[in-house]
Write a structure and sequence with these properties.
It contains eleven helices and three strands, in the order ααααααβββααααα. The protein has 263 residues and is mainly α. Strands 1-3-2 form a three-stranded antiparallel beta sheet, with no helix packed on it. The chain is globular. It starts with a helix and ends with a helix.
Length: 263
């Protein structure tokens, strides 16, 4: 047998072995599903001590720099979900049958975003598209600053709760010092910044109280107008008992902190 033929056989054999090894690695690892909530690298690290800053500009920069990577990751995740639902909608328009995986994922999305499973498929997918969308970074940042006193509240420091989120089962979080008599809610505690940010965004995207926010966002997207924090803040009247005053404060914070947000 010629040396060239022998070399070819060796190369082909090595190539086949390489493919087998690569496939073995791929199929033995757990690949992330499209529905898996993302986690940033620093999500479970202790919250920085923002009270140590005496310079206001340095404090704001540190605070925003801490939160921005998480917000970006969660928004990217929302866009991934949105593109997936758009794909399902195109299939529905073409009367294509959904796969078993698609059906399972759709059922999860229905529960996660509180969309009625009994309505027709196309209407269901359109309802999901209105709920699954980004939240402007500047809005998330100023809400976090407002609700957590720039990251110095005990709820943020000890439970990653920068957004004033409540929970309603005993022991689910922190009992507020100023809780009204007869009230049973607690301020939620989270295992990571990722989970807290995901829950906050899901809250705005699915709760009936923020239907106005989603309607504003939907109109902006339909008219190809940028989705801004100032615009969507108008849909947060129900986030605080202060109502319009709270919305105006958020919008003022967005304008006042623009130099730190766009860095």
């Amino acid at each position: 047998m010629h040396k060239t033929e022998t070399l070819k056989i060796v190369v082909i054999t090595l190539g086949v072995l390489a493919v087998i090894v690569i496939n073995a690695i791929i199929f033995t690892e757990d690949e992330p599903d499209i529905l898996d909530v993302p986690q940033t690298v620093a999500a479970k690290k202790p919250v920085p001590d923002f009270s140590q800053y005496t310079n206001v500009k340095e404090k704001k920069t540190a605070f925003f720099d801490y939160l921005k990577p998480e917000i970006e990751k969660q928004n990217a995740y929302l866009l991934t979900l949105r593109h997936y639902v758009q794909t399902l909608y195109r299939k529905a328009l073409a009367d294509e049958t959904l796969s078993e995986d698609d059906i399972e994922r759709l059922e999860w999305l229905e529960q996660e975003y509180r969309v009625k499973s009994t309505q027709p498929l196309k209407r269901k997918l359109l309802a999901l598209l209105q709920k699954i969308d980004i939240l402007p970074e500047e809005l998330v940042l100023v809400q976090a600053a407002n609700e957590s006193a720039w990251g110095t509240s005990r709820f943020a420091r000890k439970g990653y709760n920068f957004f004033g989120l409540w929970c309603f089962s005993k022991g689910c979080g922190f009992v507020p010092n100023l809780r009204n008599e007869g009230a049973s809610h607690e301020v939620a505690k989270f295992e990571s910044l990722s989970r807290a940010t995901y829950t906050y965004m899901r809250n705005l995207n699915r709760h009936d109280a923020y239907a106005d926010l989603r309607e504003i966002r939907s109109r902006l997207r339909a008219n190809q107008i940028p989705i801004t924090g100032e615009a969507l803040a108008d849909g947060l009247m129900n986030y605080s008992e202060r109502g319009a005053a709270y919305v105006e404060e958020l919008q003022t914070m967005i304008r006042f902190n623009e130099e730190f947000i766009i860095e």
